[in-house]
């Protein structure tokens, strides 16, 4: 299968590209810079120059592909306005990709986040949030899944709060960045809230399985660790960086503060049973031992 991949050179995208190429697929990779294009070529993919906001380029990518995997998202979480801009850009891109796929029965796999289920572990049957700081992403993914009624084999791989590789990535990576900047390895509240996690190499396998096997309109959980307490995550970061570990105000995390404070463990039992996905790589707490001072 020839697969058009957005976000192909990021932490997750680079592992997805390798997984696809290693299993007989070819990849057309959206590349927003010369450096990204060179990285895509070095990985064995064909680059297509353009950014997520270049809707005509996205349409061109779809016309050249047998399926689409969407992974790109802006990394600016500095303010509510920046986050809203990222969400709006992704929404327009997904709408464009989806319209180009209507009636084709081609697979369209997009990334989402695991939902929160107060008082329990969330499952694939739970809806994603459509309000709050990232509610716009939930509304957009819901619309993508709705394309199943219009001849698109659309599915969503829900990623946990941390997708990691060699100690970097995801919410844990943001905690690390803030710790380096402030000199404190912090956690919001009492730190008892739980965050799920997955190694990027394991997540890549699930994206491939969803592309190849998943039925239209379905959701899957790329969750290896159901939920590590955030204070435990901060403790490893603090030890590796030689920094004190303590509770800090939720405002430390900007617009993501309310999300960081939530208890949000998640299960992947249905995903494992149905698609035969089985994580094999190190857990988050193990992987954080790769952090360098």
The name of the CATH architecture of the largest domain is 3-Layer(aba) Sandwich
Question: What's the shape?
Answer: globular
What is the CA-based Rg, rounded? 18 Å
Biggest sheet, spatial arrangement of strands: 3-2-1-4-5-6-10
CATH class label of the largest domain: Alpha Beta
N-to-C series of helices and strands: EHEHEHEHEHEEHEEHEEHEHHH
CATH superfamily of the largest domain: NAD(P)-binding Rossmann-like Domain
In the predicted model, the low-confidence regions spanning at least 5 consecutive residues are: none
What do these coordinates show?
This protein has 293 residues and is an alpha/beta fold. It folds into two domains: 2-162 and 197-225, NAD(P)-binding Rossmann-like Domain (Rossmann fold); 165-196 and 226-266 and 283-290, Alpha-Beta Complex (UDP-galactose 4-epimerase, domain 1). Helices cover 40% and strands 20% of the residues. It is built from eleven helices and twelve strands. The strands form three sheets. The chain has a seven-stranded parallel sheet, with helices on both faces. A three-stranded mixed sheet has the order 7-9-11. It has a two-stranded parallel ribbon with strand order 8-12. Helix 3 (55-63) packs parallel to helix 4. The termini are far apart.
């Amino acid at each position: 299968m020839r697969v058009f991949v957005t976000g192909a050179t990021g932490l997750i995208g680079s592992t997805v590209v390798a997984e696809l190429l290693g299993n007989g697929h070819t990849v057309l990779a959206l590349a927003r810079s010369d450096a990204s294009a060179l990285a895509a070529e070095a990985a064995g993919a064909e680059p297509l120059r353009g950014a997520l906001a270049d809707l005509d380029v996205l349409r061109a990518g779809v016309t050249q592909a047998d399926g689409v995997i969407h992974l790109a998202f802006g990394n600016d979480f500095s303010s509510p306005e920046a986050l809203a801009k990222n969400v709006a850009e992704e929404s327009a891109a997904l709408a464009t990709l989806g319209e180009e796929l209507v009636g084709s029965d081609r697979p369209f796999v997009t990334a989402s986040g695991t939902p929160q289920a107060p008082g329990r572990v969330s499952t694939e049957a739970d809806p994603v949030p459509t309000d709050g700081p990232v509610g716009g992403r939930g509304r957009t993914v819901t619309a993508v899944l709705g394309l199943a009624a219009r001849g698109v084999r659309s599915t969503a791989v829900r990623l946990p709060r941390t997708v990691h590789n060699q100690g970097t990535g995801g919410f844990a990576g943001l905690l690390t960045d803030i710790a380096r900047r402030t000199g404190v390895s912090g956690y919001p509240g009492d730190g008892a809230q739980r965050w799920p996690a997955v190694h990027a190499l394991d997540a890549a396998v699930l994206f491939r399985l969803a592309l190849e096997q998943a039925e239209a309109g379905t959701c899957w959980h790329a969750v290896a660790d159901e939920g590590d307490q955030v204070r435990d995550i901060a403790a490893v970061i603090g030890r590796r960086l030689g920094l004190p570990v303590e509770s800090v105000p939720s405002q430390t995390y900007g617009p993501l503060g309310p999300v960081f404070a939530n208890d949000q463990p998640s299960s992947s039992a249905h995903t494992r049973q149905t698609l035969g996905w089985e994580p094999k790589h190190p857990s988050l707490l193990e992987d954080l031992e790769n952090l360098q001072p």
